[in-house]
Amino acid sequence: MGDHQTSIDSIHTIDRDRLQAYFDKRAEMSAPVGRITSIEKFSGGQSNPTFLLTMEGSTRQLVLRKQPPGILLKSAHAVDREYRVMSALRKTAVPVPQMICLCEDKSILGTLFFVMNYVPGATFWQAALPDIEKQRRAEIYQGMIDTLAALALIQPAHIGLSEFGKPGNYYERQLKRWSGQYRQSEMKTIKSMEWIMEWLAEHMPADDGLVALVHGDFRLDNLKFIDDDSGYQVSGVLDWELSTLGHPLADLANLCMQMRVPEGMANMSGLAGKDVKALGIPDEQSIVEQFADRTGVRIEHWPFYVAFGLFRIAAILQGVAKRAVDGNASNPQAAKLAEFVEPLADIAIDVANNG
After folding, report:
1. Closest CA to 351 of 233, 236, 192, 184
2. 252 CB contacts (<8 Å, ≥6 apart)?
3. How far is residue 347's CA from residue 192's CA, in Å, rounded to a whole number?
4. In the chain, what are the domain boundaries?
5. Inter-helix orientation angle 191-202/302-326, to 10°
6. Which ranges constitute the DSSP H helices of the chain?
7. CA–CA separation, 281 and 303 (whole Å)
8. How far apart are CA 225 and CA 236, in angstroms?
9. What whole-number distance in Å separates Cα of residue 344 and Cα of residue 32?
10. Topology of 4-117 in CATH?
11. Which residues, 6 or more positions from 42, have their beta carbon under 8 angstroms from its beta carbon?
12. Contacts of 287 (CB under 8 A, 6+ apart)
């Protein structure tokens, strides 16, 4: 979610008094949260505005995550789904923050929001991990792979999420969803987006019946890490807005996309063109093989999954850019993300043609 900053954009200001009054009346909370002493907006997060709440005594910090203001695309900014999935995962091997409350009363802060405990640990924004010793970079990537495998092995029905997604071919639904959202936020015709949408529709794998809980945006900077006696460990998986029931290879492909994207594209930290072996980081083949070994999932139609992931990111960025143009984005600089939609689609086309 990013490092926090003290300045809060005017359209994303939190009314502290209203929030405090809401907290004071929440008798169903597991424990009183106390008095709010400061509210700071996280600088990261293009989709749902996220705030750090420091409580009286500065011994406890909470995180508030809310929908942005304005007209929202259908099914986007589903903070209520984030709350539900993290609540369900609390007692599994996948580390998530403890949820405090979900507020569906829009009269409090103007939109839906939820509050959770702040997760301690470091966020790594650069995939090459330049500030980490070479011999320790593999620990961080291993933590990602282990956590992703643990997520893929969870049976959704066992944690009350059997109806967290619709039945049927996940990728057919996803292609329809993101193509539709792209059309709603389209500001000009982009030929490479047209090409990749057509290719994905024509090369859709048959439904193999595999169903897993999918994070939807599984990548390095959505995880937090602590360094303990046994090495770097994942302390929290964040940003579950896009989570649903889907195919277990979806998150793996999302993780591996960074191998195909250059550094800095779309504010992503890519590894394309870098010597990952020299960096001490596992390459794409190694990551895929480890995931397959740990989960037993067969890796077939791999170019489709990676190409789809790139297309989806491009469609998401188009939506973020359109919200910025309309004045509703969490980050006012988000309109610039539109310039990355076509390059991401071009990379997806390269994957489609060359594997």
Report:
1. 192
2. 148, 152, 287, 288, 291, 305
3. 9
4. 4-117
5. 140
6. 16-24, 79-89, 106-109, 134-153, 170-185, 191-202, 249-256, 276-279, 284-295, 302-326, 341-354
7. 22
8. 7
9. 46
10. Phosphorylase Kinase; domain 1 (3.30.200)
11. 1, 2, 3, 4, 5, 50, 51, 52
12. 141, 145, 252, 255, 256
Q: What is the DSSP string of 42-88?
A: ES--SSS-EEEEEETTSS-EEEEEEPPSS---TT-S-HHHHHHHHHH
What is the rounded distance in angstroms from the CA atom of residue 264 to the CA atom of residue 226? 25
Per-residue pLDDT for the chain (355 aa), expressed as one digit of tens each?
A: 444 433 334 456 789 999 999 998 875 555 568 899 999 998 765 578 899 999 987 678 999 999 887 656 555 678 999 999 999 999 999 999 999 999 999 999 999 999 999 999 999 999 999 999 999 999 999 999 999 999 999 999 999 999 999 878 899 999 999 999 999 999 999 999 999 999 999 999 999 999 999 999 999 999 999 998 889 999 999 999 989 999 999 999 999 998 999 988 877 789 999 999 999 999 999 999 999 999 999 999 999 999 999 999 999 989 888 877 877 655 666 777 888 999 999 999 999 999 8
SS3 184: helix
Q: Please give the torsion angle defined by the CA atoms of residues 81, 70, 223 and 349, in that order, rounded to the nearest 10 degrees.
A: 100
pTM, to two decimals: 0.87
Residues 6+ apart with CB under 8 A from 306: 253, 256, 257, 260, 348, 351
Q: 150 is written with which tokens?
A: 């643990």
Tokens found for residue 334:
């988000």
Residue corresponding to tokens 């579950």? 240
- The type of residue at 51 is F
Residue 207 in tokens:
């439904």
